[in-house]
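Appendix B. One record, verbatim.
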Amino acid sequence: MRIQRIDLIRYGKFTGSSVELPQRRHDIHVIVGPNEAGKSTVRSAIVDMLYGFPMRSAHAFLHPLPELRLGGLLEQDNSHLEFHRIKANRQTLRTPQDAPLTDGTLGGYLGSTDREFFLQMFSLDHERLVKGGAAILSASSDLGQILFQSAAGVASLGDIREALQTEANKLWGPRKAGDRAYYQALEAFEAATKTLKDATVRAKDWSDAQSKLAELDSELVDARQRHTALKQRHRQLNRVLAVKPFLLELDQLRLQLDAHAHTPSLPESSATTLADAEQKAAVAASEVKHHAEAEGAAQTELAALHVERNLLEHGAEIVELNNQRLQYRAHPNDIARRQAEVDAQWQVVAALVREMGWADMDEQALRACMPTAMTRSSLAHLITRHGVLHEKRQASQKALKAKARELEKAQAELDGLPAGQAPVDLVVALTAAQSLGDFEGSLRERETLVAQRKSEAESAQLALHPWQGQPETLRSMAPPSRETIQALVLAQNQDEAETRAAAKRVAELEAEADTLKLDIKQFLDTRHPVTREEVMHARQTRDNTWASLKLQPGRIVDAAPQFEREIAEADALADSRHDTIQDASTLHAKRAQLERTALAMDSAQATLKVLRGGAQERQTQWELQAQCCGLPPLSFQSMGGWLDARSRALELMDALTAATQSHVAQQQAIEHARAELSLAVQSLGMPVHKDSLRALMVQAETHLNAVTQALGQCQTVMRQIGDATRDLESLRLEQDSNQTALDAWTLQWTAALEKAGFAQSDVTATVESSLQILQKIDSGLDLMRKTRVERIETMRADLAAFEQAAKALAAQAGADLAAHSPEEIAQALDRRLRTAQEAEKEHRRLRAALEVAKQSKAGAQARVEQANAAIQPMFERTGAATHEELRAAISASDEYRQLLARHTKAEDSVRKLGEGMSLDALRTESDSSDATAAAAELGELDQQEEELLSQDRELSAARQDAKTRLSTMAGSTGGAIAEAKRQEALAGMVDAVEQYVRLHTAGRLLRWSIEQYRELKQGPMLETASRIFARLTLGSFERLSVDFESEPPKLQGRRQSGESVGVDGLSDGTRDQLYLALRLAALDMHLAQSHAMPFIADDLFINYDDARSKAGLEALGELSMKTQVVVLTHHDHLLPAFRDIFGRDVNVVEL
């Protein structure tokens, strides 16, 4: 399958754009453009066009998501498919005319591929290329497994070699191990040798040994019973000695707590709070002092600073004066240069005067004798007009003679033509008929349009199914507004989303409740925790029995066993409750969590029920509203489409009515024109051959053409005669006018010569040359005048104005400078102005510093008050008047808190050491024993326990010796068995060594054979990847190989020198070339077996140099012979390489 065209109708930044991909021998296409031109958008558009839009799209920034639309033209073998893809929930495939297509329409073109497979295999950018190549190398993908399996070639033999090596290692190895057969036989050999030595000595009598063993057993039992009783007494005394100090401490602490009963309770951090407040107040007070000093210093400096306000007020004038000084400093030299230019120009003018033949004179006399510009202009104008007037007079004479001959000829032609007029009625009727134009074609078009509108209206009515009725009924409907329907759909969608969320929440809570129930059941089955209720129930049963016995003492003998069982059961439950208190707490927490989950589930189910009820109620209300409006029984979700169909049907009905009326009007107009034209023809006495409008029009036109032709010739000749007569008179007047003008010119010429001082005999050529010289003289004089007025006088005026401004400004801002030159005044005032500006800047800085000091002092004073406010509550609670009294109250509160903590700690220690006994029981036990006597008794018990333990060890050792001697009296039989085991172990060691040598040798030979086989025969994918990789690296690497000794196997590149380089050792560019080689090899294997799809490469050569980029393009060219290749790039410097490799076959699209 290939893509012939991509239509970017509304997608991303594109609107109404298309990309053509014509097929050629090398089916490769390059889409090139700068960054953000839309190349990646085109790649995404291809995927969305083939497999549909995702739920959310990053390309809906210009066009709304529901309006996204793509199109394309696909071809496969000899079949073509043109379609559009829209963003919708269903029926996203459409024809270009927007008719829906089935979802399986593209099945034959896409094969078994899906979106993820196409992105992984056929649509690659640099990031996806790197990730996919890494996945192949890690063998985590199907392609990676195929690569390493194909490279293995003899994978089963490798397993056999591993098995041989594993079996050999189980037999022997350089390191001793208990699971190896040789070392197991060696241990058996050493143990049998030792047993053989021990079994050679025997000397005791069986009966003595048996009696001795029985006697030792009896003594050992008696000693251990006495040791048990001693340990119980020892534990009791230890408990008394352990808790007695804590009980005494509790009593002392209680007395001290009673003494502090009236001490006010303050927070634990009160001392810290007081210290912080005192520190903050001290720091803030220091800051108040510091800022007050800064404020005084700023005020002192401000008082001492003097600012020249007068200079600052005239600052702009001083700056302007200094700028004028700089601007006018070159004026004196310029005046001298301009005067030299005036003198040079006068020399040129004097030469021209001599050329005119005039006597030498000064500039003023020359200006006086110069003809005025108006006189010279008049002479020049007269010279120009002379030639024109002469030519016009000659031309008018020739034209007058030619027009007289033309008039005589036209009069003769008019005398030979007949006279006549066209009938008015016939002309009017024919004109009306001709205004209808192609009335027959127009009538046929209207008939066709009526039929078409009728068919469209019927189709539109069929589209209104299931509604059926008259058009008037359809037009008179008052359906709900689209906003109302859209609000219903929006509410329904929101309720459906909330319903799904509520249903999901109910399912989650049900699963959570089931899990909690199972946890509680398993917890009860495994831990058997005792709850407080079970203990209370057992105690209540026991107390009820005891109360009954007290009321009936005679039943004590009969009920005593039951009462004892109830006591034992209650005590056992209490002990178990104490031991499993954590389990009971856990069980209670699980049951509480189960109850909360059940409540949450009930709430979620109620919410779900309300949501479903609301949706059903909305549907019921809609059905009632639709029935009242006469709408068909459709859901409001489908009503938007039905209303669109209704609007379309009404529009088509109106179009049908308009077409029918137009057709009838055309027929009436044709019939009226035919009747009028027939009447006009008959009124001329001509027979009517055919009654059709077309025949009548031909007959009328033929008659009118004959009449009109003759009338036209006559009118033409008469018009020619009239025109010629008028032209002849005009030519006579023109000839007279030209002669008059020439006479007038002669008079003007004579007067102008006299006024300009020329001789009356001077011809126009002579006068014209003299005028040119006079013009040069006048230009020279004007240039001299302009230089004096515009340059020299202007600069002198500037210098005078500068001097006046300097004197005036010195009088206002520097009276001491009045006697100085203007330049000195400007410089001095400028220096003084800069000094005043610096002073003004310092004044503003000091004012700002003064304000900062005032604000900082106020802030510090506020912090002093804030620090005092922080400890004011403690003063009020303790009633202290000074900081020392407050500090004493805080110390007393801390001491009371410490006493409480010590009391709680001592009580916890007593309970911990009391082994579950109550405080009262422990106090009673402690009071019943003296600490000194208990310590002395403990010493005696320790000595007795040591003696008993020593006796137990001695008896145990003696008993073990007696038992060992008794059990080893088997005599020479044990020695024979030991010798047999020793020989058996020797045989096992020999067998293990022989098997190890055989297996190890076989494994080494098999490994060598496997390596030789892998060198000769590689798998097809690895072989193809090796060939492509060698080509992409320009021979820097010879091929690819797999290191099977590593775990997992790793791919390596082998250079021509035999050196192997791992993937981690490759440069970024070479690693990209390896990934591309693997991807192209996988594509080659896929295309040989499966459906061909277009391959899209988006900027894959970003890490390639020019030479390797060209090799990559050649590799893509080979792929383009098997499937379509689309290359997206912003590197336009690659285009020459494309054209060098593929010539005219490459299709370049520029964005």
